[in-house]
Amino acid sequence: MANILEDAEDIRRRGGGILRSLENLPEGCREGIRLGEEVELQHLEGLKPRRIIIAGMGGSAIGGLILRDWLLDASTPIYVSAGYHLPGFTDDETLIIAVSYSGNTEETLTALMEAMERGCPILAVTSNGRMRKISEERGIPLIPLPRGLQPRASLPQQLFSIAVALRRIGVEAPWDEVGEAIKVLEQLRPQLAPETAPEANEAKSLALGLWGYIPHIYAPRRMEAVAYRLRTQLNENAKLPACSASLPEGFHNAVMGREGPEELLEKLAALIIREPGEGERLKRRINAFRELLEESFGRVLELWARGRGLLSKILSALYIGDYTSLYLALLYGYDPSTVKSIELLKRVG
Amino acid sequence: MANILEDAEDIRRRGGGILRSLENLPEGCREGIRLGEEVELQHLEGLKPRRIIIAGMGGSAIGGLILRDWLLDASTPIYVSAGYHLPGFTDDETLIIAVSYSGNTEETLTALMEAMERGCPILAVTSNGRMRKISEERGIPLIPLPRGLQPRASLPQQLFSIAVALRRIGVEAPWDEVGEAIKVLEQLRPQLAPETAPEANEAKSLALGLWGYIPHIYAPRRMEAVAYRLRTQLNENAKLPACSASLPEGFHNAVMGREGPEELLEKLAALIIREPGEGERLKRRINAFRELLEESFGRVLELWARGRGLLSKILSALYIGDYTSLYLALLYGYDPSTVKSIELLKRVG
């Protein structure tokens, strides 16, 4: 098993575009910042909206979900809307950010139309497609994502271009965390690389630990989007079913699953996302939770976030998780870049 | 196997308090309405808050989650906050509804303190404990939940007392759906009863279908809270690990899990929550999704909601799901009322 992850050349060949996007994550973040600075915001600059709704599906929603968690303490509420319709409270003081990597996601295009009907200020984020066309025709400010990626690989450009645009629009938030976060990612990159042996490579060792199990991910509330990202990366890259839950909420329900039948629990691997500076009380409860799961789950693993600021913690955990999903795909012999079942569903008219 | 669910007397004996709460669900709804009408709202009446945050954990959060989904088209945004801290945008125009069945949930008590510090209008919902004491001392309007239940069994009182209070506070919403919803529950009740044979009892037949599998629940976005409720009822009543995901979002990621290893997928049962009037386009995509899962999941089941209004659909699906979790507990030989692992974690100081 382990020797599959010792052949860096083979990993590079089979990892393909997904690996290249991961290796370029810090550069992707910088490209996102540049895109956010360059976009002509027109009447949006300094708008200070009452609330923000980020509309997107799947790989085009993840930037919004991370912004929601990161900016939970900011003064402007951010919702992520994954579906055809905008919520009832959407009004002309609500900034709509419509994100569709392809530009042709039918749910998000419907939401964009609704936003235009309701007279909302709008920002579009896309690489192409109908969304680009509509935005150009209607004079909607547009952030052009780089083409030729898998939607899920455009995360750094999505996340940072929107973040910088929000700063310019007047949203107050801990923008100074961005510098540290990119530095933390740069430090982490060589440790996660194909050339680093499994013993020294956290993502490889997590992938080896998860192999043969259904992953159940538990994360603190401010890391909920990271847990969800890892879940969907396990779905898309590693073709695995996976679950995610948030803590402390899971202490009140999910923990009961460990009392279930042994022949089911032995198939599950718990992966707990931890962060430096958890606070004594929460740390004791997470440790007790881990010990309870160890008594019955097939395996219990931990993924430790890095850095001081919340954004560093979020993005470092995400980076380790993304690489883990890639290495796990290779262990199973899957091509991480294919998403056949998603494409089959898109074709259903 | 099936004969375990044919002995109504044995089911009544082993189902205990959880079964009695289920059989009293319609009466619990009416009790909730009465509690909401009777509470002295003082300065909250007609307040028309800018936004609403419902703070609660586990079984005390589920009423809030259902309100969030049901009232997504209403004009006042509702957030559910599950944790120690309130979001940064909490201000004195934000109504905080703090829900703790026991009254001693530490996360929710912390949130309640924060709400007082920020000068928010507050409504407390509890059966007892410190929350009752604080509310009485500070003159915070309090909805008294009936005592002696499991927190998760107080759902109808939670949900309807808060709904009626919101109506009195000036939140505009489809309140006229309440009458139909209770009627639908009353019609459903005899079909789900211990005396009804498995062939005619949707909950018994779902429980038999789920037996031996890890349940993965998929539900339309407006039924997200129902899927989550079923997940947590499977955790707490049936001591099972379980997952939930929302549609159409799951078409963009979760569906990829079906391409995974056979020896893991054969352990999973998909349960898709469906509703009358899905719309042609979504129906075709859900049907295609089901067919894709059928090729690799151990089992694929459907749970059909009833009624015309959204609230009827939500509560009928919840009712069938609640009974399913109870019957599944009995099939496994578990006592549905015990939650030992949750209690162990509560004791960690």
Explained architecture:
Two copies of one chain form a homodimer. Chain A is of the alpha/beta class. Chain A has two domains: 39-175, Glucose-6-phosphate isomerase like protein, domain 1 (Rossmann fold), CATH 3.40.50; 186-332, Glucose-6-phosphate isomerase like protein, domain 1 (Rossmann fold). Chain A has helices at residues 8-23, 25-38, 62-70, 106-117, 129-138, 155-169, 177-192, 202-210, 224-236, 262-265, 280-294, 310-332, 340-346, and strands at 51-55, 78-81, 94-100, 122-126, 142-144, 214-220, 243-247, 268-274, 299-304. Chain A has a five-stranded parallel sheet, sandwiched between helices. Chain A has a four-stranded parallel sheet with strand order 7-6-8-9, with helices on both faces. In chain A, helix 2 (25-38) runs antiparallel to helix 7 and helix 9 (224-236) packs parallel to helix 12 (310-332). The relative contact order of chain A is 0.15. The model of chain A has no long low-confidence stretch (mean pLDDT 96). At the A-B interface, helix 9, helix 11 and helix 13 of A face helix 9, helix 11 and helix 13 of B.
Unreliable runs of chain A, pLDDT <50, ≥5 residues? none
Order of helices and strands of chain A: HHEHEEHEHEHHHEHEHEHEHH
Measured by DSSP, the beta-strand proportion of chain A falls in 5-15%
Question: What kind of oligomer do you see?
Answer: homodimer
Q: Determine the fraction of residues in helical runs of chain A and give it as a percent range.
A: 40-55%
Q: Summarize the main sheet of chain A.
A: 5 strands, parallel
Largest interface: A-B, 70 and 71 residues
Task: Indicate the CATH architecture of the largest domain in chain A.
Answer: 3-Layer(aba) Sandwich
Number of domains of chain A: 2
Distance between the termini of chain A: 42 Å
- Would you state the CATH class of the largest domain in chain A? Alpha Beta
CATH superfamily of the largest domain in chain A: Glucose-6-phosphate isomerase like protein, domain 1
Query: Count the strands of chain A?
Result: 9
| Average pLDDT reading of chain A | 96
C-alpha Rg of chain A (nearest Å):
20 Å
How many alpha or pi helices of chain A? 13
The geometry of chain A reads as globular
CATH topology of the largest domain in chain A: Rossmann fold
**Sequence of strands across the biggest β-sheet of chain A:** 2-1-3-4-5
Content-based structural category of chain A:
alpha/beta
